[in-house]
Write a sequence for this structure.
């Protein structure tokens, strides 16, 4: 018999691999503790335990040439400042042990990522700065192609060039995980051939369910699975299927589960990066709706705990 218990946010764990909330704080002057967006620290404290990866993000169309690294540094300072102001409820973390320590103290574990190598000037040497900041994930591209690789929608046939391969090698040496969300298909397979382990797709769904270039093919997901990596469910309507129905998200979950993805699938909601989320979810406070929908379909609590928390914790090691 399926589990008919209805879980509240306070009864479930939460670990999400991608949001654009720091960018929103930096550019709209809102605070991280409480705001009118899709995610804030107050809402995250409502979970049994919570961890969130905060992405530094900037669309280079909106910044003068040569200023993206300055913007990256500015947003990193916002991240540091906001966490210092809210150290009573949140803690910056760089490892699985630190995440667990923060959660044991009843605090939100906050991690940092960079969404697009262009924010580091596509400079492998600046990965050393990112590592000093505690950055855990770096997307090789955002939507635009850059000097490292083509993206899923811009120069999509181009993969990693010589500079891109050097960037990958340096990230591997520093223990920074490389994120394939937004990367071109050719870039994905070039990365796989370089042996970057584990592979991460922080916020990408199943292309077999929703045929968008931002989503993963089955072969890609299997490679991520076999590398010990993680793929985070993205709630943006365009990547789910264009409807608000929770059933559309469940189709992605069930497809990945059919690919033996129970230890690979995780959350990558893209809060504050999407205009509207599927499943009638308005923000992080509604993630229990997905938990309950999966429980109603017969998924055991241990499987849901992996999807909602443990799989990300493992790769953050």
């Amino acid at each position: 018999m399926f589990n008919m218990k209805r879980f509240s946010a306070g009864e479930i764990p939460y670990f999400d691999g991608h949001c654009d909330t720091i960018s929103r704080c930096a550019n709209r002057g809102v605070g991280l503790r409480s705001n009118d967006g899709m995610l804030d620290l107050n809402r995250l404290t409502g979970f049994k335990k919570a961890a969130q990866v905060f992405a530094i993000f900037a669309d280079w169309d909106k910044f003068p040439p040569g200023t993206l690294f300055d913007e990256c540094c500015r947003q990193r300072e916002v991240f540091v400042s906001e966490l210092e102001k809210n150290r009573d409820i949140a803690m910056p973390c760089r490892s699985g042990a630190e995440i667990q320590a923060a959660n044991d103290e009843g605090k939100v574990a906050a991690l940092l990522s960079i969404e697009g190598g262009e924010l580091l000037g596509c400079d492998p040497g600046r990965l050393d700065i990112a590592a000093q900041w505690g950055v855990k994930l770096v997307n090789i591209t955002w939507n635009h192609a850059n000097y490292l690789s083509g993206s899923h929608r811009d120069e999509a046939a181009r993969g990693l060039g010589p500079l891109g391969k050097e960037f990958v090698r340096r990230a591997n040496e520093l223990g920074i995980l490389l994120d394939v969300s937004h990367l071109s298909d050719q870039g994905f397979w070039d990365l796989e051939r370089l042996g970057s382990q584990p592979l991460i797709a922080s916020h990408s769904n199943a292309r077999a369910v929703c045929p968008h270039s931002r989503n993963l093919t089955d072969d890609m997901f299997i490679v991520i699975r076999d590398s010990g990596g993680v793929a985070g469910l993205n709630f943006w309507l365009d990547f789910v299927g264009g409807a608000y129905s929770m059933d559309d998200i469940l189709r992605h979950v069930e497809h990945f589960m059919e690919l033996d993805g129970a230890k690979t699938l995780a959350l990558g909601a893209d809060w504050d990066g999407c205009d509207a989320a599927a499943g009638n979810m308005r923000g992080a406070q509604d993630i229990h709706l997905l938990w309950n929908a999966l429980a109603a379909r017969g998924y055991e609590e241990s499987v849901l705990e992996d999807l909602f928390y443990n799989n990300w914790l493992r790769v953050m090691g």
